[in-house]
Structure formats: C-alpha cells, structure tokens
Design a protein that fits this description.
Layout: H1 30-34, E1 43-47, H2 55-62, E2 67-72, H3 75-88, E3 94-98, E4 110-116, H4 125-135, E5 136-147, H5 153-166, E6 169-172, E7 179-185
Parallel strand pairs: 1-2, 1-4, 2-3, 4-5
Antiparallel strand pairs: 5-7, 6-7
Helix pairs in contact: 4-5
The structure holds S-adenosylmethionine.
S-adenosylmethionine is lined by residues 10-11, 20, 47-50, 53, 71-74, 77, 99, 101, 104, 116-118, 121-122.
C-alpha cells in the first residue's frame, strides 16, 4: 500500500507547519469563519482536518455535548491533532477517523461538514461529495473552502457544479481570505 503522504497532490504532513501556525489566525480566524454555522451539541465533520487547525475551535463551539469527527488520510496528521486536543482538554469531544482515499467512513448523521483547503486533493470528488451528502441530516450544511493559489475559479466552479449534480443546493458564498468558498445545504428531501 502507498503511504498516504506519498500520494501525489496530498499535502505532506511535514508541510503543514508552514501554514498551520499562530500567524494564520491573522488571515483565517477559525472563530469568525465557523461561528455562524455551529451550534451547541452539533455533530460536525472536519474532513481533511490536518493537525486540527479548525478542529479544536469546532469542538469549543459545539460544546461538551458536541461531537467532532476529524478525518484525514494521513496518520501523522491525526497523531498531531491528538496531541493538540489532549493539551487543550478537548479530546473527549473529538473522534479521530483514518479516512481511505475512496471513502471517509462517516458512520453517524451530521449537522455540519467542513472541507477546508482539501477538496482539490481528493482523487474522486463525486463519491466523496455523495458520502457527505448522505451523512448530512436534511437541512445540514457543507462548507467548502479552497485555496486560490491552487484552485482556479474555473476548477472551483467545476466542483460546485459537481456538488449541485450530486444533490447539494448553494446557500451562500462566504468571503474567506485568499480562498474560494461555498456553503451548500442538503435539501429537506433528497
Ligand atoms: C492542505 S491540508 C489542510 C488541512 C486543514 N484542513 C487546514 O486547513 O489546516 C489537506 C489535508 O487533507 C487531507 N486529505 C486529502 N485527501 C483526503 C481524503 N480523500 N480524505 C481525507 N483527508 C484527505 C490531507 O491528508 C491533508 O491533511
């Protein structure tokens, strides 16, 4: 089996430190980005969580009754997140999930899913989006945010169209710095 850190286009775990650091808060403030979407007690997926730049604040926002599924291909990412979550006293709210390239493995209904700077790395976006759609509760939301530097406007719109064909509806296009973003909603009846 190919180690996930050598799969082409997958952000290697050792590169993450270049953008997952305290300076990033000046550009991507997790609280500002996530606050409108998360409620106490929510079940949330952070897919392609890396070492948990957003996961810890998702756990704080969802509170003690919340449940965060942090999924990543790379065990090194999940190990880094475990250390951070333990230090922050948040590990009991976070489920670490080792994803496979063709299946995340979500096994419970979701209120919200975050895919931050990761969809462009997914080998097969269609089944990936469908798995999230199926796991979301009716009315649940998926926030996709992609880096402008790697994802052209055209490529981003292709992903948006794919998601719409899979059954998602566009709810809004939140502004996120140096990124392209879209908030999808799962219709009440799919
Ligand atoms: C650029 S990093 C972003 C990490 C984090 N979301 C952040 O913003 O700091 C992309 C992450 O997505 C993960 N990834 C790529 N494809 C994936 C897949 N199919 N399922 C789960 N994780 C995936 C990579 O291992 C990597 O940790």
């Amino acid at each position: 089996m190919t180690p996930s850190s050598t799969i082409p286009h997958t952000c290697p775990w050792w590169l993450l430190f270049t953008f997952d650091n305290p300076v990033r808060k000046l550009i991507h403030n997790p609280w500002q980005i996530l606050l409108p979407h998360i409620h106490a007690g929510d079940t949330v997926l952070d897919v392609g969580c890396g070492m948990g730049y957003f996961t810890l604040d998702l756990a704080r926002l969802a509170g003690p009754k919340g449940h965060i599924i942090a999924a990543d291909l790379q065990p090194q990412m999940l190990a880094g997140l475990r250390r951070r979550a333990e230090r922050a006293g948040l590990l009991e709210r976070i489920e670490l999930l080792q994803a496979a390239p063709d299946r995340i493995g979500i096994d419970r209904p979701l209120d919200f899913a975050l895919a931050f700077w990761m969809v462009h790395e997914v080998r097969q976006p269609e089944p990936f989006l469908q798995e999230i759609l199926m796991a979301l509760k009716p009315g649940g939301r998926l926030l996709v945010i992609e880096p402008m530097i790697h994802v052209s406007a055209q490529a981003f719109e292709r992903t948006v169209s794919l998601a719409e064909r899979s059954g998602f509806m566009i709810e809004s296009r939140p502004q996120v710095r140096i990124s392209r973003s879209v908030l999808f909603r799962k219709p009440k009846a799919v």
